[in-house]
Write a structure and sequence with these properties.
By secondary structure, this protein is an alpha/beta fold. It has four domains: 296 residues, Succinyl-CoA synthetase domains (Rossmann fold, 3-Layer(aba) Sandwich), CATH 3.40.50.261; 165 residues, Succinyl-CoA synthetase domains (Rossmann fold, 3-Layer(aba) Sandwich), CATH 3.40.50; 114 residues, ATP-grasp fold, A domain (Dna Ligase, domain 1); 114 residues, D-amino Acid Aminotransferase, Chain A, domain 1 (2-Layer Sandwich), CATH 3.30.470.20. It is 38% helix and 21% strand. The chain is built from 23 helices and 32 strands. Strand 19 and strand 20 form a beta hairpin. It is flat, with a radius of gyration of 31 Å. About 2% of the residues have low confidence.
Length: 719
């Protein structure tokens, strides 16, 4: 596939989004056919350019002259929309090349998503596209819309056209894309453009992100993803774009069942969901977990400013829904604080005596239009909140219009005084659920349940905090000995089968990267074990040294707090006897003799190599806690300094690292450096497929941290 600079990319995609002439190859007079529906959609959207139906079996469709082939069209063609049987596609692509058509949308299915001969056909298609230079969307896609007033193009096979706006959508599912487009019309969600990418033989979501980055008509980007093409490039582009325009992603395949379904549906690679979460976090992307949340976030971000903080005011006419909303805000980490006495007095001056004034503010069920207007204005102008949620329950249907009018008046009055906090409306009025709220051109997003706005606000607050932070840096660490580190792994793979490094190899590898391992050494007999213990100083720990056996504690192969020479001899002989009785004596490399560490917090650092994302790093509480609690943060390598700091802060046990109930805090700087050095190690040596440093003792500030146990696995195949 050709490599495109951003300027070249914009130029190459222009015929797709701004064509002057479109040929519909496979246009048909059969109203049930996709070829007819594509033609109808373009006509009904009042496309600003010229349309040329191509069909060798008829001379006219709906009053338009048809052409037997692309070559018969007398003028240049900017875009070919292709809906012919799969077996004819390659010949049509050849016709496009001969006609010098720069871009095509291939609606046709029957390619890699079907397996077998379909996969072979897709490879041939990819080669044709690469050789011709044609930019292609598809195959197996739903089409493309560009709703800019100067273009007005609906090159999909649905007649539904949502309102014009600033939200761009890319979908890896035609059906899901259709659902979003349909919902956008119902929700008054303004769309700039929509692309169904299908099997992304050529144009991928990465290309579209770069296009929309420069598109002045797009301010918010929605992605429905079933896989992630070229994750390193995706990460680079998404992080850059996200600092200017929010990206909201709905990623399918969160579970093993979902991953299997995704693979069969679009021939997509199943991905590890924790790696996806890690990648999105690093890119600043907003991840939705449901379609409702996906659309809810789109409504909020496309129509409202981002909150400056976490203070939320709630205005309701019913106590129960107001409390549900407040509970949801608290669960999302937002602040629903009591209003000042000044604000409560202002509210009391016009609300009924039984109204609740502290926050949530309950105006009671029969509050008038005027009371709603003044309450909204008072709360927004109080300077005591960063966002306002209005929860309305319909008491009498005939009152809904008056309440709506009051809400709009209140927002308008506050806006005229310069107060721009975002407003979200929960409109619980059966029979009136689709009411639109527009204040001087500003759309107020509405939701049907009081819990949803809290989730939306939390996501937007998190995004705004990420956007304001400077980009992280990857430290160079010039003190590492990469030559030695690489030689250790290379020699290991040369000398024996791929697998776990020996204890000596592991220690040498960590030392080369200046990753702090606890002092000590390996002894192959009891005499050397005692000598090492004497040099270290009692008390000591004696552990089995073996790169074959994982759970040493369960085998009784870890002896702690040994106070004298005899205890060390007994430990060595006991471990040897245990292995002999288990028939595993050949797995014993010796014993590891280490000093006993006191104080500090046990944490762990791990890495596994995902087939799609590469090195996925983990950080959490160590020892057995990681297995029981699962309190772990994940990120994709390479880590920046900000990534490492976020991993440490992100675990639920972070309070243990900052000092808890009189315990000293941990050396957070040393922990961050360990994470960054491990990231450098696994990036530089792709043969490392798995790494487990557990436990690591995080000592008090200034004392660093020490790795007590480490396992590293090397394989031949580089990912």
């Amino acid at each position: 596939m050709a490599v495109h600079t951003q300027d070249n990319l914009m130029k190459s995609l222009k015929p797709l989004f701004h064509p002057r002439t479109i040929a519909i190859v496979g246009a048909s007079r059969e109203e049930a056919s996709i070829g007819y529906r594509l033609f109808e959609s373009l006509q009904e959207s009042h496309f600003a350019g010229s349309i040329f139906p191509v069909n060798p079996h008829t001379t006219e469709i709906a009053g338009f002259r048809t052409f037997p082939s692309l070559q018969d069209i007398p003028s240049p063609v900017d875009l070919a929309v292709i809906a012919v049987p799969a077996g004819l596609v390659l010949s049509i692509i050849d016709e496009c090349a001969a006609k010098k058509v720069p871009a095509a949308i291939l609606i046709t299915a029957g390619f890699a998503e079907t397996g077998g001969t379909g996969s072979s056909l897709e490879e041939q298609l990819r080669e044709r596209i690469r050789c011709s230079g044609i930019r292609l969307i598809g195959p197996n896609c739903f089409g493309l819309m560009n709703l800019e007033p100067a273009v007005r193009m609906n090159a999909t096979y649905t007649p539904i056209v949502p309102p014009v706006g600033h939200v761009a959508i890319a979908s890896e599912s035609g059906g899901l894309g259709l659902a979003v487009v349909t919902a956008a019309q119902r929700l008054n969600l303004g769309i700039s453009s929509f692309v169904s990418v299908g099997n992304h033989v050529d144009i991928t979501v990465n290309d579209l992100l770069e296009y929309w980055e420069q598109d002045q008509h797009t301010q918010v980007i929605l992605l429905y993803l079933e896989t992630i093409v070229d994750p390193p490039r995706f990460r680079e582009i998404a992080e850059r774009v996200g600092r200017r325009k929010p990206i909201i992603a709905l990623k399918a395949g969160r579970t093993e069942t979902g991953q299997s379904a995704a693979g069969s549906h679009t021939a997509a690679l199943a991905t590890n969901d924790k790696a996806v979460d890690a990648l999105f976090s690093q890119c600043g992307m907003i991840r939705a977990t449901t379609l409702d949340e996906f659309l809810g976030l789109a409504k909020a971000l496309s129509s409202q400013p981002l909150p400056d903080g976490q203070r939320v005011g709630i205005l309701t006419n019913s106590g129960g829904p107001g409390v549900l909303c407040a509970d949801s805000c608290a669960a999302e980490g937002l602040l629903v604080s009591e209003f000042s006495q000044r604000t409560q007095s202002a509210l009391a001056s016009f609300l009924p005596p039984m109204a609740a004034l502290r926050n949530p503010v309950d105006v009671i069920g029969f509050a008038t239009e005027e009371q709603h207007a003044r309450a909204v204005e008072t709360m927004l102008t109080s300077d005591e909140l960063d966002a306002l949620i209005i929860v309305h329950v319909s008491v009498r249907p005939k009152d809904n219009g008056l309440v709506a009018s009051g809400i709009v008046r209140g927002i308008s009055a506050a806006r005229q005084t310069g107060h721009k906090q975002p407003v979200y409306l929960c409109w619980m009025a059966e029979g009136d659920l689709d009411r639109s709220f527009i204040v001087d051109g500003e759309v107020i997003p509405t939701y049907r349940h009081p819990e949803i706005p809290a989730r939306v606000i939390r996501q937007t607050v998190t995004y705004e905090a990420w956007r304001k932070r400077p980009a992280g840096l990857i430290p160079p660490y010039t003190d590492v000995d990469l030559v030695t580190a690489k030689e250790i792994c290379a020699k290991t793979l040369t000398d024996r089968e791929p697998g776990w490094l020996t204890n000596q190899e592991t220690h040498a590898l960590l030392a080369a990267m200046k990753i702090p391992f606890v002092s000590g050494g390996i002894a192959t007999n009891e005499k050397d074990a005692v000598k090492l213990a004497q040099e270290i100083g009692y008390p000591v720990a004696v552990k089995l040294a073996s790169h074959h056996l994982v759970h040493k504690t369960e085998m009784g192969a870890v002896q702690l707090n040994l106070l004298d020479d005899q205890a060390v001899r007994d430990a060595f002989n006991g471990i040897r006897t245990t292995l002999e009785q288990a028939g595993k004596f050949e797995a014993m490399e010796g014993v590891l003799v280490q000093p006993m560490l006191s104080g500090g917090v046990e944490v762990m650092v791990g890495m596994t190599r995902d087939p799609l994302f590469g090195s996925v790093l983990a950080f959490g509480l160590g020892g057995i806690h990681v297995e029981i609690l699962g309190d772990v943060q994940f990120r994709i390598a390479p880590l920046t300094d900000r990534d490492a700091a976020a991993m440490i802060r992100g675990i639920k046990g972070y309070r243990l690292l900052t000092g808890y109930r009189g315990q000293p805090p941990a050396d957070l700087k040393a922990l961050k450096e360990t994470l960054l050095r491990v990231s450098r190690l696994v990036e530089e040596i792709p043969e490392i497929s798995e790494l487990d440093l557990n436990p690591i003792f995080a000592l008090p500030p200034g004392q660093g941290c020490r790795i007590v146990d480490a396992r590293i696995r090397a394989v031949d195949d580089k990912i």
